[in-house]
Design a protein that fits this description.
With about 290 residues, this protein is α/β, with parallel strands linked by helices. About 60% of the residues lie in helices and about 10% in strands. It has 6 helices and 5 strands. The protein has a 5-stranded mixed beta sheet with strand order 3-2-1-4-5, sandwiched between helices.
Length: about 290
């Protein structure tokens, strides 16, 4: 049985840990509110961009843009793996990395583009050659998203990769964050306008200057940029939600351990007191005898 001193030290250590997890829980709660606010502020732009793309797709027959064409079939698949920069969020990063491993096993060759320090470390540990990587918590996420989009676009147009796939977390709820695998490029008409409107006839009620094809060719790169930017915002929100849950569970578990160790310490102290009393009584009886 552990001594009273050892139990007291363990309780003190657990209380210090509990204070840290409480502070991290409060920080995560504050940051997830900011992350959700950033998502809400970006939503009108995303909705307008999607609406413009749907209108343009309904107005053109064919589009001469690399994103609408099949890539080099002999080239590896380009994968943007997006995780958080930090841990202490339960299985959040591990689940995304596992989704990346599953995708890599299903494809003969993969070229990685990582966003987030945890994703970068995973690719380095896996023995893959040096790759492009970006931090998730950059000062300007939109600039990082543009750099990622520019790099993968150049590689796709030059035939270095066969397509662009994004693996990132999806915030289902505060208690659930699931990895999501999405094929971004090549882009099909169904991806933008939906299955119901994929074969709709052109409306012809709107005039475009320059041509609808030219406008659409300018918007498709913006569509890729903003898709990556939105994924970065959602990754932030999902990470803080996972960290909030993890730190809340850690705080509760530390409290339970403190209660259990306190009971053990009280029992050990009571046993020590009882032992001392028995020794005193035994000594007194020996003297009287």
């Amino acid at each position: 049985m552990a001594s009273v001193k050892d139990l007291r030290e363990r309780i003190r250590s657990l209380k210090n840990t509990q204070q840290i997890t409480k502070a991290m829980k409060q920080v995560a709660a504050a940051k997830i509110r900011r992350a959700e606010m950033a998502q809400k502020q970006a939503r009108p732009y995303a909705d307008t961009l999607s609406e413009m793309l749907r209108d343009l797709m309904a107005s053109v027959g064919t589009v001469d843009h690399p994103f609408m064409k099949t890539g080099n079939a002999s080239a590896p698949q380009g994968v943007i793996l997006m995780t958080a920069d930090k841990g202490l969020a339960g299985a959040f990063n591990s689940n995304i990395i596992r989704a990346g491993e599953i995708y890599a096993r299903a494809n003969p060759s993969v070229t990685w583009y990582t966003v987030g320090i945890k994703a970068r470390n995973f690719v380095r540990r896996s023995g893959s050659p040096d790759h492009q990587t970006w931090a998730l918590n950059a000062l300007a996420k939109i600039e990082s998203a543009r750099e990622v989009a520019r790099r993968v676009t150049d590689d796709f147009v030059q035939g270095k990769i066969a397509g662009i796939t994004l693996i990132s977390p999806k915030l289902v709820s505060m208690l659930s964050q699931k990895p999501e695998t999405r094929a971004l490029v090549p882009i099909t008409r169904t991806d933008i306008v939906g299955a119901a409107d994929a074969h709709a006839t052109p409306k012809g009620a709107v005039e475009f200057s320059p041509s609808p094809e030219a406008v659409l060719s300018r918007l498709l790169p913006k569509y890729l940029e903003f898709t990556i930017f939105s994924a970065m915002l959602e990754t932030d929100a999902a990470f803080f939600a996972a960290q909030l849950v993890a730190m809340n569970n850690a705080t509760d578990n530390a409290g339970k351990l403190i209660d259990e160790l306190t009971i053990q310490m009280n029992n050990a102290r009571q046993a020590a007191i009882t032992k001392e009393l028995l020794e005193i009584v035994g000594g007194a009886e020996a003297l009287n005898g």
